[in-house]
Write a structure and sequence with these properties.
Blueprint lengths: L3 H20 L13 E7 L6 E7 L1 E3 L2 E5 L10 H7 L3 E6 L2 E9 L2 H15 L4 H7 L5 E6 L2
Antiparallel strand pairs: 1-2, 1-5, 3-4, 4-7, 5-6, 6-7
Amino acid sequence: MASMAQRLWKVANTAAVWMYRRTGGRVGGRARGGSPVLLLTVAGRRSGMPHSVPVAYVERDGAYYLAATAGGQPKEPQWVRNLRAASTATIEVGRQKRTTTVEVLRGAESEAAWKDVIVATHPSFAAYEAKAGRRIAVARLTPTA
C-alpha cells in the first residue's frame, strides 16, 4: 500500500503534467533555478503502462540529457528505472511531441555527461550527488527521424 506521501506525490505529478500540457509548457516548463523542463513518457518496466513525469533537461547536439537527481534523494526516481528497461520514450517540449531512442549512460560516458553537460549547464545540480550519496544516472534521449 502506498504511503500518504507517495499518494500526494502522484497527485501533484498528475496535476503538473496536466498543467504543462494545458499551457504548452508555459506553466511547469521551468524548474527551480530556471532549468527547462520537458515531459517524459515511458512505459513502466513491470506494468507496461505509460507514465508521464516532468523532468529538467539539457539539450546538446540534438539530444536531450536527463539527470536522475530526485532532488538529491537517496533512491533514484522511477522514471530512470523505467528508461533502463525501454528502448524508446516520448518527450514533450512545449507543445512539440517527439519519439526518442533511450540510452542510460554508463561508466566514463555517464561521468563525462554528468560533469560536462549537466553540471556545466546547471552548476547547482552538483550538490545533488553528495546529498543523495549515490552516482546520479544520466540518460540521453535522441529524437528519431
